[in-house]
């Protein structure tokens, strides 16, 4: 047997209470950003749409940096998506938040694309310390 024994994977632990509260707060902020974006995007067509998508991107990337992992970007993205999906449903009164136009579809699909991009571009969790070559 060699002196290089493989490292066993650590079992997953549930998040601490503070981290869970942070994720819940980011989820609520994402929902608020979704509602605000839904109201802003039709105001000044190209500018409102870009402002709403930039707000979502800033929230997702900022949350990922603040938490220090990709889950920080996923929490507000999930809140945004839930709020926007709930706003697209029709009501018995016949009221809609989203008009049947190109801007609304760009907001819905663009927001999903922005959320996926932010979650993949966010830094993953890395061990602390200086830069080293792992595996040597």
TrEMBL record:
InterPro entries reported for this sequence: DUF6113
Transmembrane segments: 20-39, 71-90, 96-122
Keywords, ordered alphabetically: Membrane, Transmembrane, Transmembrane helix
Name assigned to this protein: DUF6113 family protein
